[in-house]
Each structure stands twice: as C-alpha cells, then as structure tokens.
UniProtKB/TrEMBL annotation:
InterPro entries: PLD-like_dom, PLD_domain. Coiled coil: none annotated. It is an enzyme of class 3 (hydrolase). It catalyses: a 1,2-diacyl-sn-glycero-3-phosphocholine + H2O = a 1,2-diacyl-sn-glycero-3-phosphate + choline + H(+). Its EC number is 3.1.4.4. Residues 287-420 form the Phospholipase D-like domain. The keyword Hydrolase applies. This is phospholipase D. One of its GO terms (molecular function) is RNA endonuclease activity producing 5'-phosphomonoesters, hydrolytic mechanism.
Length: 456
C-alpha cells in the first residue's frame, strides 16, 4: 500500500521575512518546578484573530487522565474559545480534524467533540483504513478477519457506550469494546498538530490535552506563507473520511510572501524523513547537528547521524529518557538502547544528554543543522521513528532554511544551547544517568522498530 494522493508532500519553498518560535518548557530552578507555556496561547490567539476560517488538525483533544493527578484545563479552554468564536462570528468556518483515539476507537463519545458539533463546528474523525500498515505482524490478520467479521468499520461507527474492557489510557476512562482494542493494535494515527487560518499557519509538537499540559514542546508560526498549501494538505486528510473542506475564495487567503531571506516549506509524512536525510548528507567538517527529540529510532536516520559524525560534523542529541507516560513508568524504549547503539558505533563527535523530566515528557520534535553559511531547521509533530516518518502515520513539520543572522535561527540556537548547557536552570543530565546497557532491551527495541509492534 502507498499513501493516498495529497499526503506525503513537500511544498515548494516560500520566502518570508519572519518565522515566530514558541516554546513550552518544564524544568527545575532552585529546587522548584517551573512551567513556561506559550504554545497553547498562540493557538487560541490564532483562533480569535481569524476572519474567514480556521482548520485545526490535532491528534489529542481531551481531559482523560488519572484524577489523582492535576493538570490545567487546556481542552476546556480550547473548546470554549471555539464555541465563543462560532457564536460571535457565525460566518467564520471552523473545522477540527482529529484522531479516533479521542473516542477510544468507537467505544465512547467525546463530550468536547459533541459540544463543538452542537454549535456548528465541523468535526472530522480521521479514517485511517486506507493508510499503509506499520504493524507488519498484526495488521494483515486484522484486515483478513476484520473483513470476515464485519469489524472494519470507519470512525464513529463503533459501539459507543458498550465497552466492558478497561481503558488503556487512564483508570477512570470509558470502558472499551474488544473490537476497539483490536482496531487500536494497528497503531495507526493522525498525529498531525496543525492550525491554519486565512492569515497564518502554526505547526507544533503540542497536543491540546490536559495530561500533556506540562510536556515540553515547540511551535512555529508563519503569517501569509503556506496557507493555501496547508489547506490543501488538510483537505487530503478530510477526504480520507469522506469530508470536503469548504472552498474559500483565493482572495480571502493571505498571499504567500515572495520576498524575505527565510525560506519555509511544509513537509508531511515521508517527506520529513527525506529532507532530514538530505540535510544530514550535506554535513561535514565544522558543521553541527542538534536534535531535541521525544522518540528517535529510525535506522536510516541513526546511520545518517553516525555518518555525519564520521565526516567531522558535531552531533548533539537532547532526548527524552522515555521513563514517563501519563503517570505510568516506562522502560526507556526506544531512546536508551538507541543512544547506546549510536554512541557505541560512533567514530566522531557525538554526544547525548537526557532531558530531566519530572513526570511529564520532553515532547519536542526539533532538528537544527548548522552549515558554514546557513541553518536548516525542521520541527513539528513527527517523532523520528519508522512509524512516524516512513509513510505510515500522518505527520506535519515546518522546514526553515535561513542565514545564521535570521532571528528565528538565533532563537532556536539559544533555546537548544540553553537546555544543553543548563543555562539558568536544570534542564538536562548526562548520558550516564540512563545508559541503556541492556542487550535484551536493545534487541526488543530493534524488533519493535522493524515490525511495528511497538507503540513508538
């Protein structure tokens, strides 16, 4: 199977004067936990300022979590902002595209989604059945027996309210049906995190999800550029589910800026990997690569990093230690065995630091490649795993190509240097804190990465 038409794209580059960079960070300063949060406010501001339409493609939206924990009500604020916008500006088209995880794969209804639908927001649950299968062992059996037993139904056609199995997401979550569990095990997702209006495009790594509120994330915002391209990319997702986005007149869309020294383009799905590999292939002596990443396991990228280090590039990886997941403890897969693999085989200047999480996740997905004459930045929703960047899941990133004196380049450099060097607070810790020495863990990570049985 291949990706349907309109997916896995790299748009033509567009020149702009400015790209805005926003950060969510959780860290420790003087023994106190600090939360810097800017991304969600930008999403709400973009909605408030829209005059024609807003299309939001968001993987997670909801407030399901273990109630023994406490989080800010991100999802309620988001929903109330959309409801208020629709009531005050009924002619503004509001579209929310999201993943079926928010309905427990058909086992429940989402109060947030229902509230939006009730006021006229168009809600699209992404139908992922036409996407290629990443779970090589399981999905062929699902396709065979699911068809025989009539289980291969689209989103919204499950058995809401009939679940009897415990939720895998939280102890108090809605019960799930067996069929919903079987659908979940395909591990398919619309993992994009995009907000586009007639004026602006925001691409982020952050979900609008209460239990994710304290995760560290990033976002990029561009005005004018790439609006029509982003709408086309979201139209392709809507069409998977039999929906058509409204046809907005081109004169209502902000024109793409043709001047400016910063080149930007939208990358989705497998084109994210293609452009990362191309960027790494150009790295040599005196160039540098800094990655801030939640998951890194794609073997072509791992090899490309090793090769770049061998050619003389300086490689720095800031990784989540993969120990926390919404109140549960994880065992470090894939990042810890991957880091061990990378450092063990490296013949160059390659270093790893772990982000010091305190129950939350370092959920950032950001790569910066610094050449002698310019910088290449790629950031957005995509973890660097086979499932996320090899044309299986739906993903979206922004690519930025600019000179070193561009403000966005300086801001990203300062952010990465800040957390790498622990400037003004405790952000990261040495590789030796989570060394990943288990050979069994290494074999399990490689097996899961190869066959798609893992959740990363």
């Amino acid at each position: 199977m291949i990706m349907p038409i309109g997916l896995s794209i790299a748009t033509d580059p567009v020149h702009v004067d400015e790209v805005e960079f926003f950060v969510d960070l959780t860290y420790t300063r003087d023994g106190q936990l600090v939360h810097e949060q800017a991304v969600n406010e930008q999403i709400l501001r973009l909605i408030d300022q829209a005059e024609c339409f807003v299309v939001i493609d968001m993987f997670l939206l909801g407030d399901e979590y273990d109630r023994r924990l406490q989080f800010p009500p991100l999802s309620d604020r988001f929903v109330e902002t959309l409801v208020s916008k629709k009531k005050s500006c009924p002619d503004v088209d509001l579209v929310l595209i999201t993943d079926e995880v928010n309905t427990h794969y058909g086992s429940s209804t989402s109060p947030h989604l229902e509230r939006l639908q009730n006021v006229g927001v168009e809600v699209v649950l992404t139908d992922l059945r036409s996407l290629p299968d990443s779970n090589l062992f399981y999905s062929p059996l699902w396709r065979l027996f699911g068809r025989l037993f009539g289980w291969q139904v689209g989103p919204g056609s499950g058995c809401a309210g009939r679940g009897w199995l415990p939720s895998p997401f939280s102890p108090q979550g809605p019960k799930m049906t067996l069929v919903s569990y079987l659908r979940l095990l395909n591990f398919k997702a619309n993992h994009r995190k995009v907000v586009v209006s007639e004026k602006s495009l925001l691409v982020t790594s952050a979900n609008i999800h209460d239990a994710s509120a304290y995760h560290s994330n990033i976002a990029f915002l561009v005005h004018g550029a790439l609006v029509s391209e982003a709408v086309a990319a979201e139209q392709a997702v809507a069409q998977l589910s039999g929906h058509e986005l409204p046809s907005w007149p081109r004169h209502r869309l902000a024109p793409s800026v043709s001047s400016g020294n910063i080149r930007v383009r939208l990358l989705t799905e497998g084109k994210i990997k293609k452009h990362l590999l191309q960027g790494l292939a150009l790295c040599g002596l005196d160039d540098s690569v800094t990655m801030a990443m939640f998951y890194l396991s794609d073997q072509e990228l791992v090899m490309a990093l090793q090769d770049a280090a061998t050619r003389g590039a300086r490689i720095r990886l800031i990784l989540d230690p993969n120990k926390d997941a919404f109140g549960r403890t994880k065992k470090g897969i894939p990042n810890r065995p991957m880091a061990r693999q990378l450092l063990g085989r490296s013949k160059g200047d390659l270093a790893v630091r772990w982000y010091k999480t305190s129950g939350e996740q370092f959920h950032t997905k950001l790569t910066m490649i610094s050449y002698s004459d310019r910088a290449l930045i790629i950031g957005g929703s995509a973890n660097l795993t086979r499932r996320n960047i090899a044309d299986f899941n739906l993903e979206a990133c922004l690519e930025i190509d600019a000179l070193h004196d561009a403000p966005v380049v300086k801001e990203v450099e300062a952010y990465l240097e800040r957390i790498w060097s622990n400037r003004d607070a405790e952000y990261t810790t040495a590789y030796e804190t989570y060394p990943g020495n288990s050979f069994v863990q290494y074999l399990w990570y490689r097996f899961q990465e190869w066959n798609g049985l893992g959740t990363f």
